[in-house]
């Protein structure tokens, strides 16, 4: 048992070295090599760089729009949903009136309280084309007659728990109730967090607790402290359980006779 | 028939004492484990079951069974029935040791034992437990003061400390002399205070559970729980005296004092009858008899408590023949003592059913070891003090009185 | 002996005077009064909104610096078992299948967030021997570790079985329960951790009186989706945390709790017996009188030979 455990830690040490994590924390030359190898072996999924990775042409504009906080609409017109649907249809509002086909659902209002997930990319035109009913989302209009018929969510939904607007939910809840509610009802579209959001990786500078010049084994142990499941999964992979000669190395220049489960580590 | 307490000076290390010493050692090791590993390391206590046998037996039953101290003090000192003088000192010793071990039990049970002084500084007058704690603390001191004359009697004029401490002999002698002069004049205050404090916290111990109506089984949860606790404590006082005096005199081969014990239990008939009437009346008025035959552990414990702990001994005591027979009187009193013990365990442990998590609790071996260790320690100290201090009556000297 | 007797008599006299004074006082013993804050903050949990994402648990752990759980917060298999708040987690979400089915005949889950209810008249605070637990003006039932002795009477008293204990800490264990993020709300003006993170606003934060209005309006405006019961409006004399639900509360783990504050009976008995310590003083006076009448006399009922000295 103990041998197996220490074996697992050793393998994970090697793995994490490949992942480049060890390089970040230890800075040893070997680890840096490993990092370089890692960069070479797979394209980095990091921040899209202009020129190398494709981005939507209106991405920058959407980002800017997401940061705007529009004046709060206090009073809205009370009407039943059917009345509103009829009125919008009679007014002839449709896809052609869409000014922005793409939104990043991100707001400083939400960011104030949490930052666990990245913004959601919302394809406005696509949703409009599928639903053909603006009133499903634009369920109210500002009471002010001069205002536009439809407005963005964050005009009415901003901070939660307003004393004089007790049932006006906040922006974050409005997004979630609207999106997941509709997705559930239509049995279409994601209803879990990761279906729409990318998870923000928390700042590991505060989470990782390592001495000045850590041993590789310390680094692995520190990773496993939180990512225990990753370690457990590793022990069940062929990568770890592989025994005997590998069919992929037979008759190759580098022939390997032993699997990881026996004696060696990183013998591929 | 007079009080003629003397040190027994019998052989101390008998096989029984060795067994006690063994359990004490086992308890001590477990207590050590509790202070190294925490309460969770030795006990089965949980979020749903925060109080176990340490509270149910060590504390609640310990307080109840030490009631002999104040009931005999009331009888002999306040009512002036000096005839019962010979059982006062054993009862006082039991009470003093009982409360000492209540406090020791609390030190083990509370999570921050070192903070046990804090109720002295931070008061919560709304808390029933605060009142209980204050009373227990004052009463423990009262008991020590009431016990002081025994020390004075034994050591006054005879102080001889070993080695370098001998230099302090004079000081000790002066202190004893001072105590001898002052104590008789102020003792009346402490005797009355002892009875008052006892009445207060014996009843309040019952009020403790009034705050948990959803948790305590309806067979026990009643607004008159404090009254029941007080009455049962007063009731168990004399049977407890009979119980421990019989045990002690039998074990030390002394006169069984039946001349005192038999009349002492006459009043128990009345008290136990009152307790029984209160319990049954309460059950009838609140209609809790509907639970009686549902076969749960709680109901069965209640039936055992009522039948074996109250009804049978009450019927036994009604017969003068039982009251005259040493053996049968002992059995009746042991049943009463057991009944009150079971009542406290029922209220604090068996009848306590948390409705949300419905958690099952049975004390762990180490919890029991600590409780048994404390009880052994109590009996050990009782025997030790009875051996070397004038506590038990020595009737052989009666002729000279 | 003479002096002794005189002092004794004097004291008895004083006690008698005390008795007289206390007796007049005792007739004026007040009826039990609630010490609840007039309009505390509170939280309304709408079980129809909760989606069981466990983000509130995560926020609670971060805000209160609680230990990391064994399984990560985004592992929803944790919901397969019913959990209770414990010394490592102030709040947990449980999943129930109370029997509702959707159009595909699938059971519809109801998620229930469990934490301290922050009672208006908390039994734990009344029970606490040192007053380490107190009900704050802003609604929080606050725990002051510096006073606690670890008697765990609060845990006995709590009808919701919320306070947990660090049983495995040998020297400095703490009672662990939801703090309603007291410092965060009171000093930093922020929302409680769980409330702030909830993606669907299953929790509404505000003044308790407003929350009750909101709750009743929600039930009234959609009676088909809610049972007509605001759990916590009257339970245990009222709690700062309130719940509304689409399914009967007893099917989703809520217990029946008396509507009178649990503190009432014990506190009434205690205060009527012991306010101004009148009963001990009366008892002392009475016993003193009896002792004076009988104590000095020789034994009357049975013939005896000696006295104590």
CATH topology annotation of the domain at 41-122 and 158-264 in chain C: Alpha-Beta Plaits
Major sheet summary line of chain A? 2 strands, antiparallel
Provide the CATH architecture of the largest domain in chain A: Alpha-Beta Complex
CATH class of the largest domain in chain A: Alpha Beta
CATH architecture of the domain at 41-122 and 158-264 in chain C, by name, is 2-Layer Sandwich
Number of strands of chain C: 9
Main beta-sheet annotation of chain C:
3 strands, mixed
Largest binding interface between chains:
B-C, 80 and 77 residues
How many helical stretches of chain A? 14
Report helical residue fraction of chain C: 25-40%
Spatial gap, N to C terminus of chain A: 25 Å
User: CATH superfamily name of the largest domain in chain A?
Assistant: Cytochrome C3
Going by helix content, strand content and strand pairing, the class of chain C is: alpha+beta
Question: Would you mind describing this structure in some detail?
Answer:
The complex is a heterotrimer of chains A (268), B (401) and C (309). Helix content of chain A is 44%, strand content 3%. A two-stranded antiparallel ribbon of chain A has the order 1-2. The relative contact order of chain A is 0.12. Chain A is built from 14 helices and two strands, in the order αααααβαβαααααααα. Chain A folds into three domains: 2-48 and 203-236, no CATH class; 59-196, Cytochrome C3; 243-268, no CATH class. Chain B is an all-alpha fold. Chain B is built from 15 helices and no strands. Chain B starts with 14 loop residues before the first helix and ends in a 13-residue tail after the last helix. Residues 397-401 of chain B have low confidence and may be disordered. Chain C is an alpha+beta fold and 309 residues long. Chain C has a domain at 41-122 and 158-264: Alpha-Beta Plaits. In chain C, the strands form four sheets. Chain C has a three-stranded mixed beta sheet, with helices on one face. A two-stranded antiparallel sheet of chain C has the order 2-3. The two termini of chain C are 13 Å apart. The model of chain C is unreliable at 1-9, 15-28 and 297-309 (pLDDT under 50). Chains B and C meet through α1, α2, α4, α5 and α7 of B and α1, α3, α4, β6 and α8 of C.
């Amino acid at each position: 048992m103990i041998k197996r455990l220490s074996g697992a830690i050793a393998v994970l040490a090697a793995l994490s070295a490949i992942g480049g994590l060890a390089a970040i924390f230890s800075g040893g030359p070997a680890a840096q090599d490993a990092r370089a190898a890692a960069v070479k072996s797979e394209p980095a999924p990091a921040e899209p760089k202009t020129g190398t990775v494709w981005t939507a042409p209106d991405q920058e504009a959407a980002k800017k729009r997401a940061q705007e906080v529009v004046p709060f609409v206090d009073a809205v017109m009370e009407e039943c949903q059917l009345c509103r649907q009829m009125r919008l249809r009679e007014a002839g509002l449709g896809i052609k009136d869409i000014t922005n086909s793409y939104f990043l659902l991100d707001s400083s209002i939400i960011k104030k309280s949490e930052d666990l997930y990245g913004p959601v990319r919302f394809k406005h035109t696509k949703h409009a084309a599928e639903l053909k009913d603006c009133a499903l989302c634009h369920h109210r209009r500002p009471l002010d007659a001069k205002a536009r018929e439809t407005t963005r969510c964050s005009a009415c939904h901003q901070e939660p728990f307003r004393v004089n607007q007790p049932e006006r939910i906040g922006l974050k809840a409005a997004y979630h109730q609207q999106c997941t509610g509709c997705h559930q009802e239509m049995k279409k579209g994601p209803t879990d967090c990761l279906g729409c959001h990318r998870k923000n990786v928390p700042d590991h500078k505060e989470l990782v607790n390592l001495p000045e010049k850590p041993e590789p084994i310390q680094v692995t142990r520190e990773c496993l402290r939180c990512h225990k499941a990753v370690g457990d999964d590793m022990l069940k992979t062929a990568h770890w359980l592989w025994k005997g000669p590998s069919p992929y190395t037979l008759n190759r220049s580098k022939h390997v006779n032993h699997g990881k489960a026996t004696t060696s580590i990183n013998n591929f | 028939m007079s009080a003629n307490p003397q040190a027994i000076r019998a052989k101390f290390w008998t096989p029984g004492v060795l067994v006690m010493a063994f359990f004490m050692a086992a308890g001590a090791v477990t207590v050590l484990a509790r202070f190294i590993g925490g309460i969770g390391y030795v006990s089965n206590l949980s979020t749903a079951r925060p109080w176990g046998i340490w509270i149910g037996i060590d504390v609640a039953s310990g307080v109840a069974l030490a009631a002999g101290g104040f009931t005999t003090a009331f009888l002999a000192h306040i009512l002036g029935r000096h005839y019962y003088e010979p059982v006062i000192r054993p009862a006082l010793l039991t009470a003093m040791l009982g409360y000492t071990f209540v406090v020791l039990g609390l030190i083990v049970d509370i999570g921050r034992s070192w903070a046990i002084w804090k109720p002295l500084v931070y008061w919560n007058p709304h808390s029933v437990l605060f009142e209980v704690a204050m009373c227990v603390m004052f009463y423990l001191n009262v008991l020590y003061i009431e016990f002081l004359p025994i020390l004075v009697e034994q050591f006054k004029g005879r102080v001889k400390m070993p080695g370098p401490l001998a230099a302090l002999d004079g000081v000790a002698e002066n202190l004893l002399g001072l105590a001898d002069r002052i104590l008789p004049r102020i003792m009346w205050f402490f005797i009355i205070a002892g009875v008052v404090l006892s009445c207060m916290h014996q009843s309040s111990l019952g009020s403790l559970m009034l705050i948990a109506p959803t948790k305590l089984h309806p067979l026990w949860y009643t607004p008159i729980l404090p009254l029941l606790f007080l009455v049962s404590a007063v009731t168990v006082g004399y049977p407890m005296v009979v119980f421990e005096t019989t045990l002690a005199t039998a074990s030390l081969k002394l006169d069984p004092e039946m001349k005192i014990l038999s009349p002492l239990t006459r009043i128990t008939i009345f008290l136990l009858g009152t307790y029984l009437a209160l319990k049954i009346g309460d059950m009838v008025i609140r209609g809790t008899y509907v639970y009686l035959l549902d076969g749960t552990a709680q109901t069965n414990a209640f039936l055992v408590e009522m039948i074996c702990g109250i009804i049978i001994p009450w019927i036994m005591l009604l017969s003068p023949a039982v009251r005259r027979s040493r053996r049968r009187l002992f059995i009746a009193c042991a049943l009463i003592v057991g009944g009150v013990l079971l009542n406290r365990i029922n209220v604090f442990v068996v009848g306590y059913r948390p409705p949300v998590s419905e958690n099952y609790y049975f004390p762990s071996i180490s919890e029991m070891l600590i409780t048994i260790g404390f009880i052994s320690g109590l009996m050990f100290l009782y025997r030790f003090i009875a051996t070397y201090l004038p506590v038990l009556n020595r009737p052989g000297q009666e002729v000279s009185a | 002996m003479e002096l002794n007797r005189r002092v004794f008599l004097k004291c008895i006299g004083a006690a008698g005077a005390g008795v007289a004074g206390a007796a007049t006082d005792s007739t004026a013993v007040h009826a039990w009064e609630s010490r609840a804050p007039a309009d505390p903050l509170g939280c309304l949990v709408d079980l129809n909104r909760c989606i069981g994402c466990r983000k509130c648990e995560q926020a609670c752990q971060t805000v209160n610096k609680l230990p990391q759980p064994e399984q990560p917060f985004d592992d929803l298999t944790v919901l397969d078992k019913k959990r209770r708040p414990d010394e490592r987690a102030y709040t947990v979400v449980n999943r129930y299948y109370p029997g509702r089915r959707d159009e595909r005949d699938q059971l519809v889950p109801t998620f229930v967030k469990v934490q301290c209810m922050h009672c208006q008249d908390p039994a734990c605070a009344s029970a606490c021997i040192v007053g380490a637990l107190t009900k704050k003006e802003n609604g929080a039932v606050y725990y002051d570790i510096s006073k606690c002795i670890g008697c765990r009477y609060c845990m006995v008293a709590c009808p919701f079985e919320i306070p947990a204990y660090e049983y495995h800490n040998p020297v400095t264990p703490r009672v662990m329960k939801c703090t309603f993020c007291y410092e965060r709300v009171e000093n930093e003006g922020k929302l409680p951790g769980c409330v702030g993170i909830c993606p669907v606003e299953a929790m509404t934060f505000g003044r308790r009186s407003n929350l009750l209005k909101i709750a009743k309006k929600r039930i009234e405006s959609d009676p088909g989706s809610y049972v007509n019961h605001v759990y916590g409006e009257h339970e245990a004399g009222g709690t700062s945390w309130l719940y509304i639900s689409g399914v009967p509360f007893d099917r989703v783990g809520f217990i029946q709790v008396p509507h009178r504050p649990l503190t009432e009976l014990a506190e009434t008995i205690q205060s009527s017996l012991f306010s101004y310590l009148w009963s001990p003083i009366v008892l002392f006076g009475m016993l003193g009188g009896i002792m004076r009448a009988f104590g000095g006399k020789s034994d009357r009922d049975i013939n005896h030979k000696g006295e104590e000295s």
